[in-house]
Amino acid sequence: MRFYEFECKLLLAKMGVPLPHGGTASTPEQARQLATELNAPVVLKSQVLSGGRMKAGGVKFADTPEEATNAAAEILKLPIRDQLPVCVSVEAKAAVAKEYYLGVTYDALAKKPVMIFSDMGGIDIEQVAEEHPDHIATQHFSTLVPYTDFRAKELIASLGITGGELTALTGIATRLVRLFQQYDMTLAEINPLGKLEDGSFVVLDCHLDMEDEARERHQAVLDALGISPDETRQGRPPTDFEIRGAQVDAVDHRGVAGRVVEFDGNLGLVIGAGGGSLTIFDAVQKYGGKPANYCEIGGNPSVNKAMELTKLILSKPGVEKIAVIMNVVSNTRADIVARGVIKGVVESGHHPAEKISIFRIPGSWEADAFKILGKYGVEYCDRSVSMSEAARRAVEKTGA
Amino acid sequence: MSILIDENTTFIIQGITGREAVNMTRECLDYGSKIVGGVTPGRGGRDVYGVPVYDTVREITSKERVDGSVLTVPPAFVRDAAFEALQNGIRLLVIVTERVPRAEVAQIVEFADMKGARIIGPNCLGIISPGKSKMGGIGGPAANTDQAYRPGHIGVMSRSGGMATEISNSLTAAGFGQSTTVSIGGDAIIGSTYAELMPFFEADPETHAIVIYSEPGGPMEAQLAEWVKENYSRLPIIAFMAGRFMDAMPGMRFGHAGTIVEGKQDTAAEKIRRLNDAGISVAEEIAQIPELVRQRLNEGKGQP
Question: What pLDDT, on the 0 to 100 scale, is given for residue A52?
């Protein structure tokens, strides 16, 4: 889960990392007040969940409160990658002498966190790694032994840094690791970290990502930031349809039937599970089908959950038919999904034989499922028909 | 032969009294697995289908050989259960539980390295060496398992538990049995990657080819491609790549925790390019896999 820059700075402040003076404004008037209080030239930045703000026009400088008011008004109505900012930050403009980079993330192959330092901040770290490998230093560290100052000192000194600069950078790096570990971050990055003309350091921009799986463990800090549990913070905000899909999944704790992503096609998909859904979605598109949604069912969901998911998908405008396809199931019962789906179709006021283009869930309890499906005249198949072939038949029946 | 487990492997189940764990115990026993005990704190003295339940791992390891453990405890207890098993000398852990934060997975893996132990998972369905033993829910009830899995010469590794069975089933239907199928897990950090399991298959004379199921997200496919190039593997590899549609949707998570496109190297297209570059065949759909296996074996590769 990605944080807005101003949220990142609030978290960094808790760790004692030095930040510029300033705050956030939701209106141009608030921006004027902040600029007046700061009594100095300011920088205003759009608070959106994507990079490239400078290029998109989401960062502006202002010398007077009047200029700050106008800049805030422009930024607040400028969408960046289809997202309007939640607010604009107003900070005293720093007199930067040099920019550094500090970052912590996981290395999935080493299976350890890795600390990255560069004396070329302000540009994309991958570009530094490619073009100036001698200006970047990396260091894996243990998750069992505490990360203490000497590790950061060794890393930073390896690029030839010494004196007061080394001491200051060491303290910031160690605090960043502490933040990374304490809040289950998957990425904690300060870029750029500015060294000012007076020799002090200040965070100019930063990026934090918290592990979704760990969100519940940090509810208190998320509450304090005003982040509600249903804020997904994915590539784009969830649609109403997707929010209702999440509600279906939360109906009871038995299995999964939800995790819906909305598309604008005519073929509703009741598919599973994790890998199966990816495989089936690809197959539907390959045969020219237009999916109305992505979803996941698995882990033996209840009849009720399968029914509610079916009703949700059928309620979406433009859905002509649904396809019910899964990989060979081990613990999910085919008969339970069959009952849920049929009930959902009937309760939506349709005939199962007409609305269900194909049912392919081979594996446990398939014989019972086939009996139920046969009774309603629904087309079904066993494992001798591949997932891809089942998808092709569904597309053929539904039309593009 | 097989890798990781065979008919002599003894294991325990941590969290054995949970609803899904009780079913899994039954399914493994029916398949012939040797489950020597289960652990649920506070439930010592009971039994699950004749398997004695203990409060601690040590009560079991102090009196008999335990080769492995299946962990099916809730996410908040996984680290503790794993440390308990590792501290008591168990060398193979299958972590079934989903939603374990990667900070804790990293700790478990680091401690396992210190103890010389291997981790499979988290977020996996386990390991099966068909006809010998299965460790975890992979394949489901014994009758269903027998339908999908047969003893044979293909090693299977899959980031999806369900697709491990789908692929093995398609191989079985075409007359190709499996030496061992491993559901390696769908998380961003897992105990054993494809490349880390390759040396086991490479050393198993009964394994003649490998099939993998892969997805967008993470560096594991690139690591396998590098491993194959550097080690002159004798084993032909056939890959299936799901989630091609995700390339157009960066930043969105689908299916598994580890399945997200964050950069170019995470995309299905880039992974397919790297796999092909290393001589790995990439199937367009599951149904093509057996034919590709046949072709690659006919080229004469795969023999030990």
Answer: 83
Chain B touched by A104 (CB under 8 Å): no
Structural domain harbouring B26: 10-298
Which ipTM score applies to this complex? 0.94
pLDDT confidence tier of residue B303, bands split at 50, 70 and 90: low
Average pLDDT, chain B: 95
Count CB atoms within 10 A of the CB of residue A224: 13
Q: What is the pTM of this model?
A: 0.94
Percent of chain B with pLDDT over 90: 91
Strand partners, B38: B13, B53
- Sequence-separated (6 or more) residues with CB below 8 Å from residue A74: A57, A60
Q: Are A22 and A41 in contact (CB under 8 A)?
A: no
List the one residue out of B136, B192, B197 whose CA is nearest residue B165: B136
DSSP state of A329: B
What span, in angstroms and rounded, lies between the C-alpha atoms of A186 and A218?
Answer: 14
Tell me the one-letter amino acid at A159.
L
- Whether residue B246 lies within 8 A of chain A, CB to CB, comes out as yes
Domain range annotation of chain A: 21-92, 96-225, 240-398
**Is B256 in the active site?**
yes
Can you tell me whether residue A271 is helix, strand or coil? Answer: strand
Are the C-beta atoms of residues A350 and A385 closer than 8 Å to each other?
no
Tell me if chain A has a CB within 8 Å of the CB of B172: no
Set of chain A residues whose Cβ sits within 8 Å of the Cβ of B262:
none
* Segment A265-289 mean pLDDT: 95
Chain A residues 121-180 with CB within 8 Å of chain B: 126, 142-144
Q: Is A282 on the interface with B (CB under 8 A)?
A: yes
| CATH code, B284 | 3.40.50.261
How would you write A169-188 as a 3-class SS string? Answer: HHHHHHHHHHHHHHCCEEEE
Residue B202 structure tokens: 């490479």
What is the total count of domains within chain B?
1
**DSSP 8-state assignment for residue B38:** E
CB within 8 Å: B162 and A298: yes
Tell me which CATH homologous superfamily contains domain A96-225. Answer: ATP-grasp fold, B domain (3.30.470.20)
Assess if residue B221 is contained within a domain. Answer: yes
Class of domain A21-92: alpha beta
Q: Name the CATH topology of A240-398.
A: Rossmann fold (3.40.50)
- Are B101 and A213 inside 8 Å of each other by CB? yes
| Whole-number Å distance between alpha carbons of A291 and A287 | 11
Per residue in A189-223, pLDDT (tens digit) is: 999 999 999 999 999 999 999 998 899 999 999 99
Query: Looking at the domain assignment, is residue B80 inside a domain?
Result: yes
